[in-house]
Amino acid sequence: MPPKAKYTREEIVQEAFQMTREKGIEAVAARELGKRLGTSSSPIFTAFKNMEELQSEVRKMAMKKFESYVSDAMNYTPVFKYVGIKIIQFAMEEPKLFQLLYMMEHSESQKYEDLMVELGETYDVCIQVLEKEYDLTNDEAKMLFRQVWLSTFGICVLSAGKVCHFTPDELTQMLGMEFQGMLMLIKSGAYKTIKVDSKKTEN
């Protein structure tokens, strides 16, 4: 019969989550986590198969924290801008959690569509709002979301890495310009792909 855990899985995950918020997921080692719990590393491996399983649970908790930032989005207008601002706020206030969710190196890169699946309801809500409020087709809404999200993600990376700091007014202006510019381009129907090619020289 396996030994009874001194700490519950929930308690261990919560402490590991706090460590991640402070120092990053790479700092969550069994020995250090045991010290913070006031014990050895044994209770950790009684509750979890390995550290990878524990880190997976921490990541789930980080995603719930992320989702809490945008959970009230439907109470604001424009919804899409509010979501963008709150995502950047999350990157500023919880840089280690943002890095865990969106800046960790993977064994292999994901497709953009796979990343959107991880956003869960946030993505679905945004697409629905864009379709309804701006009279866009589903494909147009997804295109608009992709371009604005990638721009917003860039700001998040700069903020989470403490490379740049932006004021609320700056964020409002930048997100507004990006959104309005892309919306006008999509509505115009004038968008076309221009390939990069080498200049041909004449002799």
The secondary structure category is mainly alpha
- Helix content range: 55-70%
Number of strands: 0
Average predicted confidence as pLDDT: 88
3D shape: elongated
Overall description:
This protein is mostly helical. It folds into 2 domains: 9-56, Homeodomain-like (Arc Repressor Mutant, subunit A); 71-187. It is 68% helix and 0% strand. The chain contains 10 helices and no strands. It has helices spanning 9-23, 30-37, 42-47, 51-70, 79-93, 95-102, 112-119, 121-134, 138-160, 168-188. Helix 1 (9-23) crosses helix 6 and helix 4 (51-70) packs across helix 6 (95-102). The N and C termini lie far apart (85 Å). The model has no long low-confidence stretch (mean pLDDT 88).
Which properties best describe this structure?
mainly alpha, 2 domains, Arc Repressor Mutant, subunit A, 203 residues
